[in-house]
Hints:
The chain is α+β, with helices and mostly antiparallel strands. The protein has 10 helices and 13 strands. The longest helix is centred in the last third of the chain and has 33 residues, at about 305-335. It is elongated. The model is unreliable at about 20-30 (pLDDT under 50).
Amino acid sequence: MKRVKKTLQTESKKIASAVLLLFLFSFQAFAHEPSKSYLSLTMDSGRFIGQWDVPLTDLEKVAPAANYPKVTAYVLSHLRIVVDGQVVMPRVTSRESVLEELSEGRCIQINFVLDSVASAQTLELTYNLFFETNSLHRGLVRIEADGKTRVASFSPERRSQEFRLTEPAAASQFLVFVREGVWHIWTGYDHILFLLALLLPSVLQRDAGGWRAVAALRPAFLNVLKIVTAFTLAHSLTLSLATLGMIHLPSRLTESAIALSVMLAAANNLWPIVRERGWMMAFGFGLIHGFGFATALSDLGLKRGAMALTLIGFNLGVEVGQLAIAAVFLPAAFAARRTWVYQTPVLRFGSTFVILIAGTWCAERALNVSFMPF
């Protein structure tokens, strides 16, 4: 009997250690900072007009941004375009660099055309920009031809894609942004830490003596369900309103408020103001996070019909992503809830760690400076 009890204690400590590592170092699994470039190809008068917005943060690591001819040569050398089986070379139409401020930060704009493609039936793109230096980079592409809009996402795992310009593209576009939604929540350090800060006390109850473990899985599960549902409803509302252009908030204000929400959610674990109603905090701050999600879509410049389908797919992907995080976290946290490791290093030290990280983010975003590499 004693041996069984000792074995269970050992296993609990192992699980608690795993939860601690998951919480404190989850975002460090990503060696680079997520970034996106935005490429649009629009059929007009027998040719494709191209515009490529490339993030300066990635570009400055591989090419001198001040030398525009070298920049355009470098960027375009990482895109292969095949129209109806024939390689087509882009013709650059801009001689000087144009800088834009997008949700990804400052971008350099490259304008070009693809001539003599009036009767194009298929378009194949091979995208390799920045994959060698940033494995989290994504290339978002919007193609408008024959009255149809197609959207695609390129990653190190999906470098080449073919588009049949005369066929409907609704289903493929929907699936693209389901994946993008999942990826956005998994690479959004602030969103992940906010969710984990809310989930940490889900397997505990507070009384006069402090935190104590819940007796059964059911109340913990219901608590997590309420938190995730409230967060979902809130950010779905503001994501939809912002993406459809009904409400707009400055990017710096939104990102600063998201960092502040992470800090307050973690602080509530140490100095509780909202005690047994974490779902209320999830809903209130979820409204702010929705504006952050919207920036991932607004830069694409989609038309209203295409945006509606993209919005649904992206929002579904976000939900799948956060449910996956909750599904991994809850069983491990429940198994470790009675241990000292969970109730002190994980809950208290982890929450303090989140406060420090989120406080630094808040200062960075409010003052437009950078102290940390993520």
